[in-house]
């Protein structure tokens, strides 16, 4: 089983959502970012230190059984500026303000900020819809390099 599948299976089995994970060169450091599937619904559903500890303990056990070689494991929440990684994220956080960076620029512009209008499918291609001022932009999901929520403070 691939490391990504192992982590995702473990995290979702505990009732959390795997937002993303990062590895350092040679996978000596593993960083796992978790969220609750319902985190947009209520303030009380934010990730706590106890949640991170529970996931960390379970992953450590699984890594021991599966002989995953690593030096350090870090488990944390994705933060207020949560990254949008999967197509479901773009549906779930529709209506929220986001910043995104394109892999291939549109004209001379690569960075955009606006209100996420969701995800559409057109001709078998998933398109992220972003309203910037009064203009609706549509970007191919594959062209998005990085996207994050803009925190409401």
Description of the structure:
With about 150 residues, the chain is α+β, with helices and mostly antiparallel strands. The protein folds into two domains: about 5-75, GMP Synthetase, Chain A, domain 3 (2-Layer Sandwich), CATH 3.30.300; about 85-150, SH3 type barrels, CATH 2.30.30.100. The chain has helices spanning about 5-15, 50-65, 85-90; strands at about 15-25, 30-35, 70-75, 95-105, 110-120, 125-130, 135-140, 145-150. A hairpin with a 5-residue loop joins β1 (about 15-25) and β2. The model has no long low-confidence stretch (mean pLDDT about 90).
Which labels suit this protein?
153 residues, GMP Synthetase, Chain A, domain 3, SH3 type barrels, 2 domains, 3 helices, 41% strand, elongated
State the major sheet: 5 strands, antiparallel
Uncertain residue segments:
none
Total domain modules: 2
Q: Beta-sheet strand percentage?
A: 35-45%
What gyration radius follows from the Cα positions, in whole Å? Answer: 17 Å
CATH class membership of the largest domain: Alpha Beta
Query: From the coordinates shown, what is the CATH architecture of the largest domain?
Result: 2-Layer Sandwich
User: What is the element string, with H for helices and E for strands?
Assistant: HEEHEHEEEEE
Categorize the overall geometry.
Answer: elongated
Strand arrangement, major sheet: 7-6-5-4-8
Task: Find the count of extended strands (DSSP E, 2+ residues).
Answer: 8
SSE-based structural type: alpha+beta
């Amino acid at each position: 089983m691939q490391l990504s599948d192992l982590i995702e299976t473990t995290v979702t089995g505990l009732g959390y959502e795997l937002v993303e994970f990062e590895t350092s060169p040679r996978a000596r450091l593993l960083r796992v970012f978790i969220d609750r599937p319902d985190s947009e619904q209520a303030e009380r559903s934010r990730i706590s230190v106890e949640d991170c500890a529970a996931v960390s303990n379970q992953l450590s056990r699984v890594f021991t059984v599966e002989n995953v070689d690593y030096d350090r494991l870090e488990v944390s929440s994705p933060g207020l500026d949560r990254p949008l990684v999967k197509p479901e994220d773009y549906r779930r956080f529709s209506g929220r303000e986001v910043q995104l960076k394109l892999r291939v620029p549109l004209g001379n512009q690569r960075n955009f900020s606006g209100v996420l209008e969701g995800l559409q499918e057109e001709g078998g291609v998933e398109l992220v819809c972003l309203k910037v001022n009064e203009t609706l932009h549509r970007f191919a999901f594959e062209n998005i390099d990085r996207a994050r929520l803009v925190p409401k403070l």
